[in-house]
Amino acid sequence: MDTLLEASSMAKRPCLCANDPCCRHSHCCINPKVSQSEQMEDLLEAFLDFSDSSSALSLHHSFEKLLDSRACDSDQNLLIDRALRLGSALLEAGKRSARKRASIHNSMTWALPPDLTIKVFSMLDTQSLCYAAATCSMFHKCALDPLCYANIDLTTVVPKVNNAVVSSMIQRAGKVLKSLRLGIVPGPTLSPGSSQPLVYTIRNSVDAAGFSWNDKRSRQGKESSILTRSCLTALSGDTGAAGALLRRLHLYNIERMDNTALCAALSACPSLLDLEIVGLHVELRQTLMSVSANCHLIERLFFESSKTGRDDSLKALTCVDLVNNCPHLTSLALRGFKLHDYKVRILVKGFQKLKYVDFSSSYSITGTFLRNLGSSTGGSLLEVLILRDCMHLKEVEVAKFLSAIIAGDFRLLRLLDISNREGLASEGDWYYRCYNSSMIPIKQVLEERPDLCLLAEFPSEGSIIEIEQMIDILNSDASLSSHLSSHSSESSVSMSSSESSYNSDQGSGNEDGREAGYVIYEESSDEVDILAV
């Protein structure tokens, strides 16, 4: 043991027993003509030849004697430090060798060749792939293949993923990237495309998980688990190679994403077929303009507003450009926006291949866009039409639409949802709500079209008091909104209920002259910081 610690400082001298096989493991067998690596091998072999039963005690005694031979404390401390470093190095060498042998063993016993292993890994979800890569070096090497990252899913219930993780995986995928899903989802029970809202805030997710929002917010740099506006920068990096063949992009509740960052990411994805945006603080008009300019092959567009009923930015010209530049669209969902009938009609009648339409929680839609829809090319192919909780949807327009179905229009329609938690609006005054199905031919439709799934869920007739309460809320909300218009950011106000965001415009909004009066709500880049105060 003394020799092992002092091997580097021993004076080189002739060994009298170099040729003696009985002494070849003794400390005096170090030959100056032998290389340093050979000397180290001999020392290790001599050190490891100790029996397990006596090695611990003998090492202890030998080391104590060696310490006693040092006169001053500084030399003793230096010797202890050298012993610790040597023991640590020996331990690490043993671990590396064990991992190497285990990897060789795994490669020999693993039934699949590397190419098939990579194929299996490419079928795993992103979290399972990370778990597999951490098991052994062989799996880790296979998991680095770009094919394993063709479909990246980093959605979580609480913030766990930062920009560095997203960028690293996008760079690993490179040109083979086909699908990317990021952000915070409410939970496994809510699936995209359902009638339930998918908007979720970072504060909600952290509170639900029992974590402190301030703790999450205070983490900076690599430790931060909050996605920011630059999380998609890797798509446009390397001359846009990563986003060139991207087919699906789903973004959920990334509160720090803004219009500029999203439009830059969409400009790098010319092959995009499926775009889903939920809860981002981006403007509808600018987003659709970017899609129209860059994503000509898109087939599915799902956009749910983070501020229900308050985004009034959409222009008729933007609808026309979208129809002309994206002719392959078959599924369109714009949920929670303030949409007027004539704009909706441009979209529904313009897309010749449209099969799925969802305008849930959209304000100002009265239903006039449904008139003569089945007789035109656009709209006749509809299979799903969802108008749930459209507060201005009129009972008379729904009745006319159902009569058209009875007459034989919309033969391909399989799902119609006209449910409304406040009932349908009357013809003259939308404050007066319809609470029963006596005015609309629901029974006749079901008899005539047994293959049609018709959802018409309304509150009971005895809920008239709720409407009066809603009017009071609307009146107070009108005065509140005029007060808020003087502020640069509206995100500091937290609505106590979904009814407080209802728009009190009783008209159908079908006049082109109203375009000049639209209000475009600008988003604050510091919204998350305001919410955290």
Question: What do these coordinates show?
Answer:
The protein has 19 helices and twelve strands. The protein is α/β, with parallel strands linked by helices. The chain is elongated, with a radius of gyration of 35 Å. The two termini are 62 Å apart.
Please outline what is shown here:
The chain is of the alpha/beta class. The protein contains 19 helices and 12 strands.
| Unreliable sequence segments | 1-13, 16-29, 189-193, 205-223, 462-468, 480-533
Average pLDDT: 76
Helicity, as a percent range: 40-55%
Radius of gyration: 35 Å
Helices and strands in order, then pairings?
Blueprint: H1 2-5, H2 36-48, H3 52-68, H4 73-109, H5 114-122, H6 126-133, H7 137-143, E1 151-156, H8 163-173, E2 179-184, H9 202-209, H10 213-218, H11 233-240, E3 248-252, H12 259-267, E4 274-278, H13 284-294, E5 300-304, H14 316-325, E6 331-335, H15 341-350, E7 356-358, E8 384-386, H16 395-406, E9 415-417, E10 424-425, E11 433-434, H17 442-448, E12 453-455, H18 464-484, H19 527-532
Parallel strand pairs: 1-2, 2-3, 3-4, 4-5, 5-6, 6-7, 7-8, 8-9, 9-12
Antiparallel strand pairs: 10-11
Helix pairs in contact: 6-7, 12-13, 13-14, 14-15, 16-17
